[in-house]
């Protein structure tokens, strides 16, 4: 366990660590990369701003999911309505052409 | 002499701009490094500084020296970067379930240009950068310009547009706060 004196010594060394510390320098391709960056068109910069925003990306993801959910619910709802309508049409058709009745009755009548 | 050079820059002379980049790239880079603490981010920010210079040289009123103006842009861009990084970190903390403490690594002295610096000194600089990142903005700026760029108090006062005595006060407070932060760091390591 370090004593206070030892901790103070560590602090002093750390505070002095920048003395004679070589300055950070760029590499040889700095200007080449800068030139490429300067040639980038303005609208690409706008797109970068859009996609770099920390709130827009998740907001759009949530909106996208919500829209999909709404579409899915609407699709399911519409599907069930179509099925009900079909059943009603079938029933009407059956009634109209007496398809739910036996043909035996008709034969008996003809014999008389 | 500087006036002629500035005039050429305003006219859009590519050779003048290239000369400007060669003259100031390491000063700008080193300043940015003092704020962000790693090579890759310092490089990005330094690039942004020169893009800004390129785009706004026309509005340079010459009410200060060219170097003072460039340092101001470097400081502002570095602070902008730190603000964005803080927002991103806050957001990612909300969505992450577990968080690892990688603070020292974030400030890893990825100083690949200086292979002759001892590992111990590199680590101490990384720790100092971490403590520096916790300081209030003005203290951080004054300390960085003094200790990374070795600017005089007068030059720092010009860049920050404050008085020399304010610079002295800021650096004094920065040192005190850094010592407190480092004490907590080394004490908790015990």
**Molecular shape of chain B:** globular
Largest interface: A-B, 27 and 40 residues
- Shape descriptor of chain A reads elongated
Arithmetic mean of pLDDT of chain B: 87
Helix content estimate of chain B = over 70%
Q: Please trace the helix and strand order of chain B, writing H or E for each element.
A: HHHHHHHHH
CATH topology label of the domain at 1-99 in chain B? Rna Polymerase Sigma Factor, Chain: A
Q: Could you give the distance between the termini of chain B?
A: 57 Å
CATH architecture of the domain at 1-99 in chain B: Orthogonal Bundle
Radius of gyration of chain B: 18 Å
User: Which parts of chain B are unreliable, with pLDDT below 50 for 5 consecutive residues or more?
Assistant: 95-102, 108-113
User: In sequence order, what are the helices and strands of chain A, one letter per element?
Assistant: HHHHH
- Count the DSSP helices of chain A: 5
Q: Into which percentage range does the β-strand content of chain A fall?
A: under 5%
In terms of quaternary structure, the protein is heterodimer
How many strands, what sense, and barrel or not for the largest sheet of chain B? none
């Amino acid at each position: 366990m370090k004593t206070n004196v030892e901790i103070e010594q560590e602090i002093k060394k750390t505070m002095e660590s920048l003395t004679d510390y070589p300055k950070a320098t760029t590499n040889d391709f700095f200007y080449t990369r800068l030139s490429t960056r300067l040639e980038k068109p303005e609208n690409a910069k706008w797109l970068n701003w859009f996609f770099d925003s920390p709130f827009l990306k998740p907001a759009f993801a949530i909106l996208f999911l919500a829209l999909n959910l709404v579409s899915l619910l609407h699709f399911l709802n519409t599907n069930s309505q179509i099925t009900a309508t079909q059943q009603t049409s079938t029933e009407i058709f059956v009634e109209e052409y007496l398809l739910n009745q036996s043909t035996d009755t008709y034969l008996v009548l003809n014999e008389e | 002499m500087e006036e002629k050079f500035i005039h050429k820059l305003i006219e859009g002379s590519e050779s003048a701009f290239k000369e400007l980049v060669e003259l100031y790239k390491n000063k700008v880079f080193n300043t940015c490094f003092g704020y962000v603490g790693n090579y890759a981010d310092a490089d990005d920010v330094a690039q942004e500084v020169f893009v800004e210079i390129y785009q706004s040289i026309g509005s340079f009123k010459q009410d200060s020296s060219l170097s003072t103006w460039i340092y101001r842009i470097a400081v502002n861009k570095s602070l902008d970067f730190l603000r964005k990084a803080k927002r991103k970190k806050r957001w990612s903390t909300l969505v992450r379930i577990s968080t690892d403490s990688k603070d020292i690594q974030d400030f890893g002295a990825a100083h690949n240009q200086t292979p002759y610096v001892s590992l111990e000194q590199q680590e101490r600089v990384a720790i100092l950068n971490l403590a520096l990142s916790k300081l209030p903005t003005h203290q951080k700026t004054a300390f960085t310009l003094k200790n990374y760029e070795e600017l005089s108090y007068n030059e720092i006062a010009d860049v920050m547009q404050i008085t020399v005595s304010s610079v002295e006060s800021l650096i004094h407070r920065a040192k005190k706060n850094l010592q407190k932060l480092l004490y907590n760091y080394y004490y908790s390591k015990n």
